[in-house]
Write a structure and sequence with these properties.
252 residues, alpha+beta, Ubiquitin-like (UB roll), Fumarate Reductase Iron-sulfur Protein, Chain B, domain 2, 2 domains, globular, 4Fe4S_Fe-S-bd, metal-binding, electron transfer activity, 3 iron, 4 sulfur cluster binding
């Protein structure tokens, strides 16, 4: 015996909830402004939106002159580092709903580097310091053309500092870097650490001599700002302390 089945319409999809957030952005156009100025924008967002999505919406729908860097948008390239509510973060990894949206969200360029426009700074001084520590493997030829072997324990010794994406979040969170244009900064020291403790590298002495300079590791005041700011979770302050110990006692 057959049973008739009544036609049923599919249920309408539930509406995705939205909310309105106010972003207060520190703007600067060198062709117009003598000093940076704050400008606020009300943006309708979804719960899953990030600060980067909010910036995109402002740029695409409200003010096309808003200027900021971004590339991969997945926390790998590090190009969208900026200060969000007074803390260095990646805009692509910061969910708006995780911030206090009952208050305005303040967004500005990272500190300690020359401001070019809006949220963009000149990264050349940062990369100059990075280049000074010889961020590459320094090793002679292997006899017989064999590979350079390294044990898992030896590899683990510098694993943490290989995670650096050169976003400058740690360096531009450092109060010493803000006031001393000659300080190498945490990111350069982290990248030196990566090679200093690599068992295959033969240039540890050269890098340690460079970082033993008055503007090297001894300028660090151990405030942990750099560790707190790192979007990759690198123990930056610990890496700097280990480089200091290597200078005093030699690489273990």
């Amino acid at each position: 015996m057959s049973t008739a089945v009544a036609d049923q319409k599919p249920a309408a999809p539930a509406a995705v909830p939205t909310f309105t957030a106010t972003l207060v952005i520190r703007r600067f156009d060198p062709d117009v402004d003598d000093e940076p100025r704050w400008e606020d924008f009300d943006v309708e967002l979804y719960e899953t939106d990030r600060v980067l999505d909010a910036l995109h919406k402002i740029k695409w729908e409200t003010d096309g002159s808003l200027t900021f860097r971004r590339s991969c948008a997945h926390g790998v390239c590090g190009s969208d580092a900026m200060r969000i509510n007074g803390r260095n973060r990646l805009a692509c990894k910061t969910l708006v709903k995780d911030l206090d949206i009952s208050k305005p969200i303040y967004v500005e360029a990272i500190k300690g580097l020359p401001l070019e426009k809006d949220l963009i700074v000149d990264m050349e001084p940062f990369f100059d310091s990075y280049k000074e520590i010889n961020p590459f493997l320094m090793a002679g030829a292997v006899k017989g053309g064999k590979e350079r072997k390294q044990s898992p324990v030896e590899r683990a010794r510098f694993d943490d500092t290989t995670k650096c994406i050169l976003c400058a979040a740690c360096t531009s969170a450092c109060p010493v870097f803000w006031t001393d244009g000659q300080y190498f900064g945490p990111a350069a020291i982290v990248n030196a650490h990566r090679f200093i403790f690599d068992s295959r590298d033969e240039g540890a002495g050269v890098r340690l001599d460079i970082l033993n300079d008055k503007e090297g590791v001894w300028r660090c005041r151990t405030t942990f700002n750099c560790t707190d700011a790192c979007p990759r979770g690198i123990q930056v302050t610990q890496a700097i302390a280990e480089v200091k110990q290597a200078i005093l006692k030699g690489r273990p």
